[in-house]
Amino acid sequence: MGHREERASCLPLLLLLLLLGFCRGRVVRVPKGPLIRVVGTEVVIPCSVSDYDGPSEQNFDWEFSREADFVRIVSTWDSTFTSEEYQKRVGYGDIKLRRSSNDAVELVIRNIQPTDQGRYKCSTPSTDATVQGNYDAEVQVKVISDGLSVSGSKARSSMSLRLSEGDSFKLRCSAITTSPEHTHLHVTWQIKSGSTWRDILSLTHEGKFQPGPGYEERYRNGDIRLDTGANDTYRLSVSQASSVDGGAYRCLVSEWVRGADSSWQKIQEKSVEIASVAIQRTALDVVISTSNVSVTERDSLDLTCNITTDRSGIFQAEVIWYFSASPDDTLSDAQVLLSMDHDSVVSDSTLISLSHVDRNSYRLLVRDVDIEDSGYYFCQAAIWVPLHNGSWHKVVERTSAPVSVMVTALEPDYEVFLNASKTPKFSDDPTELNCRIINSQDTEANIRFTVSWYYRQHLHSDDVVTEELLAMMDADWTLLPGDRSRERTQNGEIIFFKKAVDTFSLRIQWTSENDRGDYFCVISAWSRHRNNTWVKSKDMTSAPVSISWATQDYTLTVEAVKLKPFFVAGHTFEMTCKVSSKNIKTPRYSVLITAEKPLTDQSNPNGTTRIISLNQDSVVRLEDWTDQTRVDGVVLEKVQENEFRYRMYQTQISDAGLYRCVVTAWSPGGGGMWREAVNGLSNPIQIDFQTSGPVFNVSVHSDNPTIYQGELADLLCIVTTEGMALDPDDMSFDVSWFAVRSFALDREPVLLASLDRKGIVMQSRRNGSSDLSLERISPLEFRLRVHGCEDHDFGNHYCVVTPWVRSATGVWQREPDIRAKPIFLSVKMDVLNAFKYPLLIGIGLATVIGLLSCLIGYCTSRWCCKKEVQETRRERRRLMSMEMD
To answer: Where would I find the Ig-like domain in this sequence (predicted)?
Structure first.
């Protein structure tokens, strides 16, 4: 039953699809009629076809009927299709076909007549496999008489107007129609610029005003209007005429009718030229009566702007005065001084006035001029004319050439004298310079003086050296230090001050060698302006003053003396450093003891070691002395003012080398600071131990350098001796184990563990799970064990041994460090042990999952999926034989 219902519901859908398939076919379309056209105009009737088979380009036949029978007009594919009465018009081209696409053509009838009124049929020959759809379409064409009349002025066909820029004018045209149909008129005013006509303003057939391109703003402002009047007249009003309004004007009228599809159709169009308008530009000349002007500060500046125009009638002038610092500045960059609008309203100003002398002259008067008024002045004038609505329109605007105005400053008369009240005789002595203003005249309350200090370095050659600014004062007497003296001025080493009303002073508290040179000052005079600002009016430079003193080169001599000529290891080494200097004022000395070790000393590969120092304030400091067991083993003390003593207790074999005194002489500088004068280096004192002790050698050994992960690695560091035999109790060793984690020794060694001579073991921090142990198994053998080796324990391993030997006096002497040749430790992975546990775990999990799957399957089939099946009872009947029938 269910399948039957689904089939029944699909039947309507199938029938609908079959119906749509049968309904699809060729469609020929023409406009919906009737088409109303005016006699004598051109008629275009389009025809198109769609939903067809066959070639893309289709052919068309046109026929005409006035009453019943159709007469053949023209065809796109058959030249003999045209009937005899239309052959002449078709041959002349009055009737023709114009193809717009492969599936559309247009029937064009020029100069249609009333006899052309009737039915037009468009048909298409069949190219379809089956005949479906429509193959022709008809449209009714109605021809009406021409009732449209367009005319201009009654006096003459076209008039000429000569107007001035800014004037207003009006043009009229008349348009009327007596068409029997209900038609609407579309009126457009046009202007001819060049060879093309441009739309100005239109009154459309729908009763809407539409301004042309470029006339939108003027239409919104009311400068262009289109008004309708009596007797079907249309008036164009233009206000504020400009040069673009010159040209020929015409009135273009088109007649429109609403078609059967409610769309508007233009049926004819007529135009008439109304007038030719010439716009004469208004001439305006703007000139400033004076060319170049020079006035003295605090005098008055008088300038007159003269304007000349050919404008007649009612007009008003607008004048604006501008000022700029450059003659090339534009109006937007210039400053507006004063303005007078066309209503003779003058903008407000205190020191500047603008007056209207006569009809064409405008006077600018600037009182109490100053230096800031120097520049370029120019005048801008504009002509305004009244409009019909009472407003004013600007017709022309011109700007005069700029006039240069130079304001001469009233410079004060004064002189500058520079002298040194304090000169240095030695370095760090004070220096004081005084810059005085003398013979000052014509100075008043509006004049202010400031000073600038400059320095020029002394050179023995003829090279030109530019001066360096030390400090300067601005108009507010604010001190601005230069780059050379800024830091010393902030520290109080250089002081600038005003000693008296006419005296500026410069004091250098502690004169240094860098202060040698020429000094000069510049006194600047500042004038107060109208706006209470200060402008520099004059600079006067003093003669230079040279600052120098007689000097001699510093000399420093340092002599080192060894107090004990002979000593052995374990004794005290002692030497003195005697210092002598010349040409240094009250010197103090700082001493540094250095040691030049042999190049075989691995603890100091650079060769020179800074041991201990004593500065000029007698403060002792350990420099590079790193022996923690002998922190107090070196002493440096000051014996006399120029003598220093160095002691080193319990000397070791490793102390052998050349010892020197590095001395620096200091002289007192400014502000209680010390200034470095000169350095000196003493002669070397050698410490050399002549011994015939044993020679130590170190080697690394391993029975099994290749091991597997998790195993134990044994590395032995073996020390051997040659030469003089020693009691094991007189020998002790510091042992350190290192590893380089690479096949080549191209990485930094890593400290693993160390064992000092006292038996204390130190281990470095480790990241892995393996562990280390370091022990001494004999007096000359040391064993390093790596427990539970991992892959990161591979690499080159070596030990560094520092021997210690006890001398006959019972003093332990440190021998140079000895480095063993490295041995490479390789750690391999045991594949069987690595995969044994993962394999066992995988087999176990697979077995458990298999058993669990069997159990779930059994339980599901036993209880969850049990279903009773009832067999349908069938009747068993035997077939009857044909004979029994």
So the answer is: 12-132, 165-273, 284-381, 412-541, 694-802
The string over 571-610, giving b where at least 16 C-beta atoms fall within 10 Å of a residue's C-beta and e elsewhere, is eebbbbbbbebeebeebbbbbbbbbbbeeebeebeeeebe
Q: How large is the C-alpha radius of gyration of the chain?
A: 60
Which is more confidently placed, 600 or 783? 783
Cα–Cα dist 593/579, whole Å: 14
Report which of 695, 666, 693, 698 is spatially closest to residue 679, judged by C-alpha positions.
666
DSSP run (H or E) holding 425: none
Contact 401, 395 (CB under 8 A): no
User: How many angstroms from the chain centroid is the CA of residue 689?
Assistant: 71
Rounded Cα distance, 670 and 424, in Å: 13
CA atoms within 13 A on the CB side of 467: 14
Token pair of 711, please? Answer: 């195993």
pLDDT tens per residue across span 626-663 = 777 777 889 999 999 999 999 988 787 778 889 999 99
8 A C-beta contact, residue 90 and residue 15: no
Among the listed residues 107, 43, 44, the one whose alpha carbon sits nearest the alpha carbon of residue 74: 107
- 105 and 60 Cβ atoms separated by less than 8 Å: yes
- pLDDT of the residue at 682: 92
**DSSP assignment string, 380-402:** EEEEEEE-TTS-EEEEEEEEPPP
What ranges do the domains of the chain cover? Answer: 24-144, 148-280, 284-408, 415-547, 555-687, 695-828
User: How far apart are the C-alpha atoms of 652 and 813, rounded to whole Å?
Assistant: 5
- Vertex 154, ends 151 and 155: CA angle to 5°? 135
Residue position matching structure tokens 């069997």? 854
Of 757, 789, 758, 792, give the one whose Cα is nearest residue 771: 789
How far apart, in whole angstroms, are the C-alpha atoms of residue 811 and residue 630?
A: 13
What is the CATH code for 555-687?
2.60.40.10
Angle of CA points 67, 72, 77, to nearest 5°: 155
Q: Is there a contact between 209 and 189 (Cβ–Cβ < 8 Å)?
A: no
When the candidates are 2.60.40.10, 1.10.10.60, 3.40.630.10, 3.50.50.60, the CATH number that belongs to 24-144 is 2.60.40.10
**CA–CA distances in Å: residue 27 to residues 159, 180, 595:** 56, 35, 116
pTM of the model as a whole: 0.43
SS (H, E, C) 620-653: EEECCCCCHHHCCCEEEEEEECCEEEEEECCCCH
- Mean pLDDT across the stretch 421-441? 86
Three-state secondary structure of 788-805? CCCHHHCEEEEEEEEEEE
Separation of CA 619 from chain center: 56
Cis bond upstream, residue 705 (ω within 30): no
Q: Two tokens at 509?
A: 């508290």
Q: What would the mean pLDDT of 191-218 be, rounded to a whole number? A: 91
Express each pLDDT in 7-50 by its tens digit: 444 444 444 433 344 455 789 999 988 899 999 999 999 999 99
**Are 612 and 625 a contacting pair, CB within 8 Å?**
yes
Q: In Å, what is the CA distance from 646 to each residue of 591, 592, 653, 859?
A: 10, 10, 18, 99
Kindly state the tokens that stand for 282: 């208004």
Contact (CB, 8 A) for 96 and 90: yes
CB-CB contact of 58 with 124 (8 Å): yes
64: closest CA among 104, 116, 112? 116
Superfamily of domain 284-408: Immunoglobulins (2.60.40.10)
CATH 3.30.70.3280 at 695-828, yes or no: no
Our CA angle for 123, 124, 127, nearest 5°, is 155
Q: What are phi and psi of 840, to 5 degrees?
A: -60, -40
d(CA 876, CA 15): 47
